[in-house]
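Sorry to interrupt, but I need a hand with the structure work. Could you write out one complete protein record for me, on any chain you like? Could you add the entry underneath, on a fresh line?
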Amino acid sequence: MEQLMIPEGYKSQLNLHDTQIGIKTVKDFFQQSLAQRLNLLRVSAPLFVTPDSGLNDNLNGVERPVSFGIKEQGDAPAEIVHSLAKWKRYALKKYGFSHGEGLYTDMSAIRRDEDTDNIHSIYVDQWDWEKIITKEERNEETLKEVVRTVYKSLKKTEKYMAIQYDYIEEILPKEIFFITSQELEDMYPDCVPKEREYNIAKLKGAVFIMQIGGILASGEKHDGRAPDYDDWSLNGDIIVYYPVLDIALELSSMGIRVDEDALQKQLEIAGCPDRAEMPFQKAIMNQELPYTIGGGIGQSRICMFYLRKAHIGEVQASLWPESVMQKARDNDIDLL
């Protein structure tokens, strides 16, 4: 996608003031629905962690975290989180949560190496959530059940927004479609992963692509995943078709987290078995942390989707190249 794509005939239906009201309306309604359906309690979470804790999300392993030294601690290094995928599991134990209970939090991150466009920003805001399951519940049936629950909240929010705003029509299908990344490759063997996502999202409206992180039959990955939080055989992305931009729009990445066996296997595949000696990873290997399922849901992404905006900068305050800002001004698009 170009840095700024202008849909033909696009004009925001809300001015800056009313957009702020719309953002709050979406966030308030969705998080209340999600917390109720998944039995989640809102908690406070860190903005930064120490590099040696093993708690930061390594994403695809190449993104550089924003780091700084802490003056009063002898300039000890700290890193802005990429996400809270690992911290949440630790917090569930520390805060005394029980089976079937979970937490969610507002996560803010800076991803300095992000290639920005209509849906990507160097600023990331999402709801990070996590809940405790049993080892026996670490299966595809549990994953699909939770995905359907999250999707019900997405559907319910769209219905609510369509009632609040006349210009919003319901476009999400009744049910979400499930497919593995290998099945998707088999379906579209001549396409790259993003093209496959677009094709299946446009065909089905809403899809959960499962089993992301491992190598496919082609010898390539569908997408990268850190080896030490999601179980690559029990994870996936919720992707919807977004007609405003004619794209596949990822709203959530989620999955059942690694147990001791999956962690060891995936660390070896990723070529970083030494990471098993870091505090967080060692706690998993020693079975000191609960088995969990969790994910992240993009706050700006869903606000953009429900308010039918053309650029993520219309619903979040970030930094953009001057060329993008000028093109937005020329087309009467207000970036916050």
Residues 140-164 form the longest helix (25 residues). Residues 16-330 form a domain with the BirA Bifunctional Protein; domain 2 fold (CATH 3.30.930.10). DSSP finds nine helices and eleven strands in the chain.
